[in-house]
Amino acid sequence: MKVYNYCCFIVLLFTGIVNRVDAQSGLQKAPRPNMVVIFMDDMGYGDPECYAGAPYKTPAINKLAAEGMRFTNFYAAQAVCSASRAGLLTGCYPNRIGMHGALMPWATLALNPAEETIASTLKKAGYRTGMIGKWHLGAKAPFLPMHYGFDEYLGLPYSNDMWPVGYDGKPVTDTTDRKFKYPPLPLLEGDRPVRFIKTLEDQGTLTATYTERACDFIKRNKKNPFFLYLAHSMVHVPIAASPRFLGKSGAGLFGDVMMEVDWSVSEIMRTLKEQGIDRNTLVVFTSDNGPWLTFGDHAGNTGGLREGKGSSWEGGQREPCIVRWPAMVPAGTVCNNLSATIDLLPTLAGLAGAPLPRQKIDGIDISSLLFMKEGANPRDELAYYYGRNNLEAVRKGSWKLVLPHRGQTYKTYMPGKNGFPGGYADVAVPQALYDLAHDPGETQDVQKAHPEMVAVLMEVAGRYRRTLGDDLTKTPCAECREPGKIPTGKE
């Protein structure tokens, strides 16, 4: 595999597709591709075999990387479910649009229908749009996918652990158990339930159900450009696999689930190829946040990055990301440039020739990285927000300044086993400076040796505070928009 540390530009000749050429720049202009975004749940940076190695195999994901570009500095919008998904779909930092945390089934907030999503943006360019899997941006109509630009939807309205079933897989009957208050977990078709997920065996059907529908969507839409958003429920707990994969990985249930997820990727790629459209389909594979480490053997790994889901440390927000598009993206390449899920909307819109949302977004078009344009570095900084609007860190280049805040750590308690959680602690996090180029595990605070970088990053933090605010410094948000409000019936 060839590694390009700064995504250096090269010119390649591709067969099978004739590409246009920009007369002014001389750069190849991309043909309008089909687009598939595979969004995993709680998959860590180290979970795919091609990132950090594992006691199980992921040959299809490995092949995706070998045939495309693997990103090493790619970030989720925030390290928790609903906020991360809002950022992906809108191209905004979640706090800009009033989204935070993981929405409960009874939440009164949702993604504002006035926000434009990748789906509604691509529909303006004539794309057919479909979503399959976990939504988690509003639990009932009109705050479900088909009201945000998707032509069709099959999936769960929120996380698969939001159900009245205990960690042992048995229905909860104790009225004092917090899980007792959850409603039955519905599998939706459009806005309506088609069945309910009641058991761990039912959970084990989700990956195959999503995959079958994804392949069906591809077959039905092969003659027109399409956007497919496949948001898997796995590997979020409770993890489960279908009988054909149980016990097959030799690495426990988590390994079995990873095998089935990998099978899902292989089925989608096989279908694209059988339909004759794989060369001009852009496939993105990434995750919403890092692993939920408190679940121990039912959680993934961060590949040595610090902490996991629910934190602004690298293990919480840095994600695996692979982009495959044989028509335009050179195979077997690695990009070390900074990029994020919020960059997908402007990138995909640009490739489709679709207009950007009318309201301000935070994403940046990173197609120059995909095409390996010389000197390309579209994103040089990143803000790590968490909670409602806490600015917990900023990054510029390889330097990350962690700002004082309170955060969770998994290091205080032993991790759980067999589907039961361990614990985590709330701790004070002091200011610290890390050089991620040499210390991706964030182990050595070097602010005393580099006061000049502290000053630079404090200026970056100040700019974000002036526009998006910061609850930690009691700075109001000048540019934030309101989320959607779900009627409670008590108005």
From TrEMBL:
Which residues does the UniProt record annotate as the domain Sulfatase N-terminal? 33-354
Q: Does the keyword Signal apply?
A: yes
Signal peptide range equals 1-23
Entries under InterPro entries matching the protein:
Alkaline_phosphatase_core_sf (IPR017850), Sulfatase (IPR050738), Sulfatase_CS (IPR024607), Sulfatase_N (IPR000917)
Q: What Gene3D superfamilies would the database entry show?
A: 3.30.1120.10, Alkaline Phosphatase, subunit A
Record's family?
A: Belongs to the sulfatase family.
Q: What is this protein called?
A: Sulfatase
Q: What organism is recorded for this protein? A: Niabella pedocola
